[in-house]
Amino acid sequence: MGYRAPLKEFRFLLAHVVELEQLSRTELFSEVGEELVAAILNEAGRLSEEVLAPLQRVGDEQGAVLENGAVRTPEGFAEGYRAIAEGGWIGMAASPEAGGMGLPQTLATAVNDMMSSACLALQLNPLMTQGQIEALEHHASDEIKALYLPKLISGEWNGTMNLTEPQAGSDLGALRTKAEPNGDGTHAISGQKIFISWADNDFTANTCHLVLARLPDAPAGSRGISLFMVPKLIPDAEGRPGRLNSLRVVSLEHKMGLHGSPTAVMEYERATGWMIGAPNAGLKAMFTMMNNARLGVGVQGIGQAEAAFQQALAYALERRQGRVPVAGGPGTIFDHADVRRMLATMKAEIFAARSIALACAVATDMSRATSSDSWAARAAFLTPIAKAFGTDIGCEVAHLGVQVHGGMGYIEETGAAQYARDVRVTAIYEGTNGIQAMDLAGRKLADGGDAACRLLDEIQATAESARACLPEMASRVWEAAETLREATEWMLARDGLNDRFAGAVPFLRAHARILGGHFHLKAALADRGGPRERLASFYISRLLPEHAALLAQVRQGAGGLYALSADDLAPG
Q1: Residue 273, SS3?
Q2: Would you state the pLDDT for residue 89?
Q3: Which residues are catalytic?
Q4: First and final C-alpha spacing in the chain
């Protein structure tokens, strides 16, 4: 069985769990009604199933290769990309003034989820361009916008981000790439960047690199970084790709997965670049792109989880092995309790992670439509959770998919292992999940916990409303939220950040666990006696209790970690 877009699931989530309807009550998104949403989802689902999904194995087996300094992509990727571009999917959330559709980020998130399921290696290309579009919309000059945005939105050109250097990974303050003024408003960019996704291809007319670099008089550290647009081909007076810029793809990385997506080492040798935003304010502009990408990467994890789950379920319904313990079932391994446990876990975790991601997207859209500080704070708070939990669940569900297949899961020909290999990087790039957790425990609590407490108030209000009809589930969700509130207060009372950081990962995971319970409870209220109520019961009774152990870790602080020396951890 091939990939099938979960259209019913998206319609249910948008209508009953994250309440997309509230967007249609704003002036900005007043035309986003049920018919438009259904049309968008249906067409994106068709594209994902029929055009992109067949490229999944091709990309893995053929891979992207570097030949004579140019990247050659796997067979069919050019046609798949053109289908994405010609359908308008790259710029669906971009400004209509530059050729975008102006649709909510929530719909773009659902579309990216389906495309990630179908072919993650290819979907990463337009995702990077979408982030670049948003960064330019917010920070570029009118001239840069007029030249670049229409071509990025149409898919004629594609975009990348260039942050990492060999000596500067997550610590961007350590980067050394230089930007020297040319005297004509442009800058000469010199340096090396690594881990550049889709740094080149053989199907767009130009590749546009956003590059972080330092001006000659820049202060040290992260406050001395500027952002530059450095195109592969310098546009001529008519805006067409002209002469080759002074940059090159040095090599492509040999990766664990995502073989169809070229990941490059880039060399810039006095390449011509145009500053985006103000001098020494490059991180602010780049983080606009990164925040967009962080939600997008969380959705990549969810999409891969969905595809891995669908394949595992199909296999479990076909594979006969051993004496089945129940009557009336299909007579396959689906009837074994542990296989049921794995499949139910996969389904429940995907629902929780997808709900969090869509709720984050709704908050982003509501912030944009209403200019509300509380919606902006909600979106900012949910972003690291959506990224980290979505990708963690992608990794965990993909590995469960291998387990459901048994020995055949370890055989490449089944395709189960590819999901585990491809999705693994999502927990690393766009900020490792540990960094997302530190962001949540640090910056996102800088408001004194206001955004966190408003979210907990909402969770507990939903639980209170459910007590009459779903008392056991409602009580468990309410009590979990109260425990999280107490842990948040403990975090806020710490004098040093390191005590927070020591428990940051379990703190984020506990938020995701409890948000998952909240969204499952909302689903159960909307589907009384139906499959979503049964799935909610499974999640709340079997997975939600993990929050207690996670929050016990949070309260341990950093002391125990630093009591262990390097010698204590050395082999021997």
Answers
A1: strand
A2: 98
A3: 430
A4: 49
**73-114 pLDDT, tens per residue?**
999 999 999 999 999 999 999 999 999 999 999 999 999 999
- Please say if the pLDDT value at position 442 is more than 90: yes
pLDDT band at 285 (very low <50, low <70, confident <90, very high): confident
The pLDDT of residue 325? 82
Question: Could you tell me which residues come within 8 angstroms of residue 280 by beta carbon, excluding any fewer than 6 positions away?
Answer: 215, 218, 219, 223, 224, 225, 226
Grade residue 353 by pLDDT with cuts at 50, 70 and 90. very high
Question: E strands of 167-225, at which residues?
Answer: 178-181, 187-197, 206-213
Contact 133, 159 (CB under 8 A): yes
Q: What are phi and psi for residue 431, nearest 5 degrees?
A: 95, 115
pTM confidence score: 0.96
Sign of the CA dihedral running 370, 376, 378, 384 = positive
**Residue 124 pLDDT:** 97
* Percent of the chain surpassing pLDDT 70: 99
Structure tokens at 491: 């975090």
Q: Is 127 helix (H, G, I), strand (E, B) or coil?
A: helix
Structure tokens at 529: 């006696």
Distance CA 79, CA 75 (A): 9
Complete DSSP assignment for 310-360: HHHHHHHHH---S--SSSSS-SSGGGSHHHHHHHHHHHHHHHHHHHHHHHH
Query: Looking at the predicted structure, is the pLDDT value of residue 126 above 90?
Result: yes
Looking at the chain, the whole-number percentage of residues with pLDDT higher than 90 is 92
Distance CA 442, CA 447 (A): 10
- Over residues 363-367, the mean pLDDT reads 97
Residue 566 makes CB contacts below 8 A (sequence gap 6+) with none
Average pLDDT of the residues in 403-418: 96
Q: Is the distance from CB of 512 to CB of 389 less than 8 angstroms?
A: yes
Pairs from 176-179 (Cβ < 8 Å, separation ≥ 24): 176/214, 177/211, 177/212, 177/213, 177/214, 177/268, 178/213, 178/214, 178/216, 179/213, 179/214, 179/215, 179/226, 179/228, 179/273, 179/275
- Does 507 score more than 90 pLDDT? yes
Classify residue 68 by its DSSP letter: T
Q: Quick one: pLDDT at residue 475?
A: 98
Of 152, 128, 112, 124, the C-alpha closest to 64 is 124
149, 40 in Cβ contact below 8 A? no
Do residues 466 and 517 make contact, with C-beta atoms less than 8 angstroms apart?
Answer: no
Contact present, 437 and 508 (Cβ < 8 Å): yes
Say how far apart CA 536 and CA 470 lie, in whole Å.
11
Give CA–CA dist 378/454, Å, rounded: 9
Query: Helix H segments across 331-470?
Result: 337-370, 373-405, 416-423, 433-441, 450-466
Distance CA 24, CA 369 (A): 10
